């Protein structure tokens, strides 16, 4: 679903879930991540930064991301994935070079 200018993704939901976890633990928000909890201030001083670091680590190492997925963050209804690959060739190809020879106006 689309809300305002934002399209739901599971990844964005997990980031908000982590942000909420940080706010609960540190009483401030991670200034690097989007914050929609406007009543809080960013984590700026040393004590807040230490709390932020520990909260990020705890969120990751205690599998809280999986808990967020199960409780609050279902998969996207629609998604498009692309497999990235690289290819190369010699330019111009023999066929293209021959076609250019047959065009006197070029």
How many helices does DSSP assign? 4
The helix content is: 40-55%
3D shape: elongated
Structural class designation: mainly alpha
Instruction: Please identify the oligomeric state.
Output: single chain
β-strand percent reads under 5%
Which terms would index this structure?
106 residues; mainly alpha
Describe the structure concisely for a colleague.
The protein is mainly alpha-helical and 106 residues long.
Summarize the structure in words.
With 106 residues, this protein is mostly helical. The protein has 4 helices and 2 strands. Strands 1-2 form a two-stranded antiparallel ribbon. Strand 1 and strand 2 (6-7) form a beta hairpin.
Topology overview:
Blueprint: E1 2-3, E2 6-7, H1 10-26, H2 46-61, H3 64-71, H4 94-101
Helix pairs in contact: 1-2, 1-3
């Amino acid at each position: 679903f689309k809300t305002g200018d934002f399209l739901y993704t599971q990844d964005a939901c997990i980031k908000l879930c982590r942000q909420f976890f940080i706010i609960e633990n540190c009483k401030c928000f991670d200034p690097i991540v989007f914050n929609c909890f406007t009543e809080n201030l960013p984590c700026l001083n040393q004590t807040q930064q230490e709390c932020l670091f520990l909260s990020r680590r705890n969120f990751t190492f205690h599998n809280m991301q999986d808990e967020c997925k199960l409780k609050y963050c279902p998969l996207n209804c629609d998604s498009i994935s692309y497999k990235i690959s690289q290819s190369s060739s010699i330019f111009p190809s023999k066929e293209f070079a021959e076609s250019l020879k047959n065009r006197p106006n070029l």
